[in-house]
Amino acid sequence: MTDDAKSISIQSVIQNSKGLHARAAAQIVTLSNQFDCQLVMSHKNKSANCSSLIKLLTLDAPKGSNVIITATGRQKDKAAKSLNELIVKGFGE
Fold first, then answer.
1. Domain count, the chain
2. pTM, to two decimals
């Protein structure tokens, strides 16, 4: 098994006042598509591929929600850190 097949996970907290809404989810999709890896976000008992706007919206993650970012693939470290940074900065809101 190569190192690309292993995944990494980061816990993050939704910071923006509106939570994970359509514009924030669109930013996640855009970011996800920039990396050669698979990004998945989980909240409570739901998971969503970060390249799917609709799936991300089903997570129902308001401000203060703990989410888990899981990345697998060649650029997993950079992708997970970039997504965490986007969340921590409140999606620029």
1. 1
2. 0.91
Range of the domain at 31: 3-92
| pLDDT tens per residue, range 34-79 | 999 999 999 999 999 999 999 999 999 999 999 999 999 999 999 9
CATH of the domain at 20: 3.30.1340.10
CB 71 within 8 A of CB 28: no
Residue 25, C-beta contacts closer than 8 angstroms, at least 6 positions apart: 53, 56, 57
* Sheet-wide strand order for 66-73: 7-13, 66-73, 37-43, 46-49
- Residue where the block lists tokens 């855009």: 30
